[in-house]
Amino acid sequence: MQLSAASTAANVRQRLGAAACLLLAGSLPAAAQAPAPPAWQLEATGLLYGEQARARVVEPMGRVTRLYANGRALSLGLAVDAVTGASPTGALPSSQVQTTTGASGRTTTTTTSSSILPTHTFEDLRTAVDLGWVEPLGTMLSVTTSAHYSREQDYASLGGGLKSSVELPGRRITLTLGGGYNRDRVFPSGGTPMGLAPDSDPRAPGDNPKEVTTGLVGLSHVVSRRWLLGVTASESREQGYLTDPYKVVSLVDPATQLPVAQVTEKRPATRTRDDVLGSSVYHLDHDILYVNYRYYWDDWGVRSHTLDLKLRHVLGVASWVQPHVRVYGQAPAWFFVYGLTHGPPLPEFASADERLGPLRTTTFGGTYGFHVPGSRGEFTLRAEFLYQWLVGHPPQPDETASGGGGGDDNLRRAIAAGDNGTDDGRHLGTSIGTLLIGYTVPF
């Protein structure tokens, strides 16, 4: 994976992390949670993902599930990601010639104007496999174990999880407990850079370890025949190599406020993430309303709020439609900077990665499901449009500490021009579209 996938494949990695091992169990078909006649089920999907002038992903996925009469279920999933395109380097836009050392160690010279965000092109192929097993223990308790492995050009991930769910007397309340562990290896193309060093410096060969431990507790309550409420809390602890080896930070001349050099980023070697998810499912007369709210925080200073709304409307015996709206807001990490002042000593940590900045996203989309006459399976088509942008301005000169993020009106306008050419505080915006085609069939 070149500088790339750091932007796009990070989401894929998270799905396959320790936390994903816990969620994998919950993603098994509903029929796997209760006794049913022995059967097989096939789920096949194809995902097309594209960012405006950036990354593109083609991801075919398949899952086969064996459903046993006693409620047991065995699930095997396979996925392949073909990722190409471009990813922001973290450097500031500039009308000057900027020299950048690529991920392969080759030095490339690019010329960009103030309206163009510096990017690197990349391509990568990622393969992943996961396995899940559901084991009922009596009529009120079930245990799910899961494991996964994925591999790409510069990243390998191996992990597993264990989750148990118990129905309390009356069967209106279900308690879920889970835990997971992930052991990853990071081996950047061209070697691992020294943090906050010139990006042209030699890179060290070899692997960099990364560990993720996750815990989860959840509670769901059947309020009535129509209403289901749930709340889930989780915590994950990461340690090891957490820096993006392909991202850089611009060094800005304090007089001209123009980028004059760049260094590789550096992040802390530990991170604790926490989140609480509240969910509600309400069955109206003809529709089903899904409402989810998630609050996230970590010791890097990132705070986020996510509101997700879906409404499933039945069109007829063989089809349905489900509009979807999602709003996301994020506060930046404490070491996030737009650029560093050239000259003073550098801080201990710094990153210009937009994913750690004051990020906002809005998503609109919908899913259409239908059955083809004569076919036992169900087809689904999901299309979504997401707009992502950063908000706020780089710090003013009097807010800049030694080595801190430099910025004045000139720097602000240069960054803002990357979006719409105005100094409105919104910049680095991008549009993202996804199309998912799925098919599920018992056999």
Description:
This protein is mainly β. The chain has a single domain, classed as monomeric porin ompg (Porin). Helix content is 6%, strand content 56%. The chain contains 3 helices and 21 strands. The chain has helices spanning 5-15, 18-26, 409-416; strands at 39-51, 56-67, 73-88, 97-101, 107-111, 119-137, 141-151, 155-167, 173-186, 208-222, 227-240, 248-252, 259-264, 270-283, 287-298, 303-316, 319-331, 340-341, 359-371, 378-391, 426-442. The strands form 3 sheets. It has a 16-stranded antiparallel barrel. Strands 13-12-18 form a 3-stranded mixed sheet, with no helix packed on it. The chain starts with a helix and ends with a strand. The model is unreliable at 1-35, 102-111, 394-402 and 406-427 (pLDDT under 50).
Write a concise keyword list for the protein shown above.
mainly beta; 443 residues; disordered N terminus; Porin; 21 strands
Give a brief description.
The chain has a single domain, classed as monomeric porin ompg (Porin, Beta Barrel). The chain is built from three helices and 21 strands. It has helices spanning 5-15, 18-26, 409-416, and strands at residues 39-51, 56-67, 73-88, 97-101, 107-111, 119-137, 141-151, 155-167, 173-186, 208-222, 227-240, 248-252, 259-264, 270-283, 287-298, 303-316, 319-331, 340-341, 359-371, 378-391, 426-442.
The number of domains is 1
Oligomer: single chain
What fraction of the residues are assigned to beta strands by DSSP? over 45%
CATH topology: Porin
Sketch the major β-sheet: 16 strands, antiparallel, barrel
Per the principal axes of the C-alpha atoms, what is the gross shape?
A: globular
Give the uncertain stretches in residue-range form.
1-35, 102-111, 394-402, 406-427
Tell me what the CATH architecture is.
Beta Barrel
Tell me the number of strands. 21
Distance between the termini: 38 Å
Major β-sheet strand ordering = 1-2-3-6-7-8-9-10-11-14-15-16-17-19-20-21
Percent range of helical residues: under 10%
Q: From the helix content, strand content and strand pairing, which structural class follows?
A: mainly beta
Calculate the mean pLDDT score and round it. 83
Name of the top-level CATH class: Mainly Beta
Count up the helices. Answer: 3
Give the ordered list of helices and strands: HHEEEEEEEEEEEEEEEEEEEEHE
